[in-house]
């Protein structure tokens, strides 16, 4: 079973891959603990894993970290679902009608290269300092990437599928919904999973805008007082939430698209 890990493009073995992944994580944690215990790096810059876990437990039991996590998850999912609901039809239209693609793609390419932090002042001017600004910043970091992914996914659907649908009398809308959308399903779900991860990466930026809740607020507040274990504990929570979400979406992908 282990040979597949060292074979070029070898077969998959979920059990072995899980064991190797856990072993790699354990080695990394051990190295981190060793560096911290030997004092090679000052604790204020790199606390030990034990100190981070202690801070995490303290934040869970005394500082309502679970509630802050739920608030952040609500913001991320609200922005992500809004981005997906907009990006999927627009991306499909861009791939299906040249005039739509020619009109929108240059603008989308321009906007997606703009750094989100640079747009924070504008977002405050436009939306104030409430929830709308946070949702907008998260949406901004997700939508323009996702819409291009969707357009590329739709373009990769073989033209033969469209020709067969036309032969049996399908109209343009039916081709898009019943042929293209279904054919691009596996790659679309993968790209949704990837862009959801990107949405989480913009969380800190979104939650430093006059926030009083959320993981980003917790991390930013801890940074202000140089509470490095708390900062790393907050980052750890974001990573764990992202990892669990990613694995659940992978399982969903395997169940829905068993033929891939």
From TrEMBL:
Write down the membrane topology: Multi-pass membrane protein
- UniProt entry keywords in alphabetical sequence: Cell membrane, Membrane, Transmembrane, Transmembrane helix, Transport
Q: Which GO terms describe its cellular component?
A: plasma membrane
Spans through the membrane:
15-35, 76-98, 110-129, 135-151, 199-219, 231-249
Q: Name the predominant localization.
A: membrane
The protein's location, in the record's own words, is: Cell membrane
Q: Report the record's Gene Ontology biological process terms.
A: transmembrane transport
Q: What domain of life does the UniProt record list for this protein's source?
A: Bacteria
ABC transmembrane type-1 domain spans which residues? Answer: 69-249
Query: Pfam families, per this entry?
Result: BPD_transp_1 (PF00528)
Q: Which PANTHER family match?
A: ABC TRANSPORTER PERMEASE PROTEIN MJ0413-RELATED, ALKANE SULFONATE ABC TRANSPORTER-RELATED, MEMBRANE SUBUNIT
State the similarity comment. Answer: Belongs to the binding-protein-dependent transport system permease family.
Q: What is this protein called?
A: ABC transmembrane type-1 domain-containing protein
